[in-house]
Amino acid sequence: MKLIDDHAQSVRNVIDWILVAGEKWLLTLHEIGESYDDAKQLVKNHAELEIKSKDLEDQVNDLSSVACRLISEFPMHMVTIEKNRDHLSNILQAFCARVQRQSKIAQNSVVFHQMLNEFSHTTDSLLESLCTEVKAFDIASAEEEKGEMEKRVENMEKAYRTLFENGVSFIDELCIDESNSIGRPVTRDYSTGIVHIRQCLDETSARRKRCQDLTDVRRLKIQQLLQLYTCESDSDQTIKWIDELQETLVKNYDRVGCNDDELDMLKKDAVKLEETARSTYEYGKKLCQAALVLRRSLRLEVQPQLALNQKLETSWGRFCHALSDYEAKINITAAFNLAIKEVIDKLDELCFKVGDYITEKRLNGKDTKLSLESLNIERKCLANDVMELKHISDILIEQTKVKAVAEIRRKFEHVEQKRRKLENLWLNSICTTNSSNDLQLTSDENKVSPKKKTVAPMANDPSFSSDSSSPLISTNSVKITGYNGSPVVFCHHKSNISQSKRTY
């Protein structure tokens, strides 16, 4: 019986410690701490209580073994012994469960405060970067700056979500009802810890909101910088395009048309090229204006943008000058082609008139001096027209390519052929006139005297005058008397166009 009483007393001693000292110890560890260090200290305190609870488990296990032996030796006391054993086991399990829960709360407090510290470090780094100047000097550096900022913001958001979820879960865990070792409800005052957690979450939300506001400002600034550098980059591209169009105009459009259709095509091409260049210039102008506004908004130096705008104006000026030269060349070409046609028509018409004059003079022998003078006036005017054509062709030859030069020279050579034809006819007309007049003069002189006489040239005859006013043609006619008294006329042209000799 003494063994049974000693076992029962040991059971009561353990139960008394759990319900009195153990319960009091456990109730003193209901705080969660206000910092990471406080939470770590609470974990250490709970570790000591866990060690004590393990010692109690060992004692209870020993008492259970003793109870089994007592039941085998004293079967008649089995009910009492089993009742004491089961009661002790239930109280111990409830106590150990509460110790484990309290230890978990302390560990959760450590995790929560650790997350809080990490979030603080993350936001500190983000705020420090957000409060510095944006170090971006081109599109690439601006994109890199934006990428780094977005990465920090993403890390901050991720830390905030994790912290907030942990804090809410922690509060829910603290609000769970608890019972003591004998099943009675126990009121645990975690209100201070809950308030602390909510304050931390509120501060975290405010800190996050501040980071978001500064991030929006910096994001807007970086976006403006990207727009600025994009505008300036596109402005540079428009300048390159205009320069390429100007180079194309100078290199690929250095040609002249052979006819009106080709000239119309060249004019249309010039108009299209001008429209393209003008739209590009206007686009670049808008980009420069937008970049200037952005620079002023960002409080940056405006001198680089003014220099870029001046570069655009200079490029546009070069293109306009090249376009003006090209249009002038087209106009000169058109005038040249039109003049070629008109002069050829006039030369053909005058050749026809001179031919008619020669035919009529040979057939009728009539004096047509006035008609010859009018033809000579037309011939001089055409000589001036040919000289103008020569001047225009020289201008075009200096400003065009080899292929175009050959075409210009071919056209002018055609005019020269017409002119030489006219000069040959003209020399024949003069020779015909001089021969008819000399024959008539010789006949009259022979009636007066049978002797041979030398007849001097008719210096006052307009048909024999040297055409010194013409820049292209100058004709000298010399008449002498042959051995039989008949006049011999030599017509010499300074351009070696023709030389005629007729004897009457």
From TrEMBL:
InterPro entries: Spectrin_SESTD1. Keywords: Coiled coil, Repeat. The keyword Repeat applies. Residues 441-470 are annotated as: Disordered. Residues 107-216 form the SESTD1-like spectrin repeats region domain. Gene3D superfamilies: 1.20.58.60. Residues 39-66, 139-166 form a coiled coil. GO terms for molecular function: phosphatidylinositol-3,4-bisphosphate binding; phosphatidylinositol-3,5-bisphosphate binding; phosphatidylinositol-3-phosphate binding; phosphatidylinositol-4,5-bisphosphate binding; phosphatidylinositol-4-phosphate binding; phosphatidylinositol-5-phosphate binding. This is PH domain-containing protein.
